Design the sequence.
């Protein structure tokens, strides 16, 4: 007896399920939030101050390097070695500063964005509960390539109202 079987099932042409759901664009709503705009401004200011400091340190290094090159022929060995060590130290400190700046900027961004996202989640949850929706989809990117507007409800305006 042969235990093999062939699958002759066909998929139905239509499926009738009646579930209403909500949908929003996280990015569109988040960008309308005053906290988001403030976060972007604050982070841009911090980043600009880091860039200014990095530029200052770079200019200091360049100046010292030029002095070193100019005096290379006339410096005794011990002064040349001392100046080389100073230049290496400046390069190392500048690299450490850049790495620490990037780390701190990411940390601040993550922390501030989490607070904004938490607030957005609360507003979405309130809106969904008020409308009796079992779930809300985020339509950003490829998360939700299709939404049937007869089944789903764009709750963006209600979410924004809760965020006021």
Sequence:
């Amino acid at each position: 007896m042969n235990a093999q079987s062939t699958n002759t099932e066909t998929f139905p042409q239509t499926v009738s399920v009646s579930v209403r759901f909500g949908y929003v664009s996280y990015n569109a709503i988040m960008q309308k939030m005053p906290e988001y705009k403030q976060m972007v401004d604050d982070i841009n200011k911090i980043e600009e101050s880091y860039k200014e400091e990095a530029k200052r340190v770079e200019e200091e290094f360049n100046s010292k390097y030029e002095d070193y090159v100019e005096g290379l022929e006339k410096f005794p060995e011990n002064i040349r070695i001392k100046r080389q060590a100073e230049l290496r130290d400046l390069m190392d400190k500048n690299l450490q500063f850049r790495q620490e700046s990037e780390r701190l900027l990411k940390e601040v961004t993550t922390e501030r964005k989490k607070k904004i996202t938490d607030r957005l989640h609360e507003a979405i949850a309130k809106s969904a509960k008020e409308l009796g929706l079992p779930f809300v989809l985020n339509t950003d990117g490829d998360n939700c390539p299709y939404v049937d507007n007869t089944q789903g409800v764009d709750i963006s305006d209600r979410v924004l109202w809760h965020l006021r």
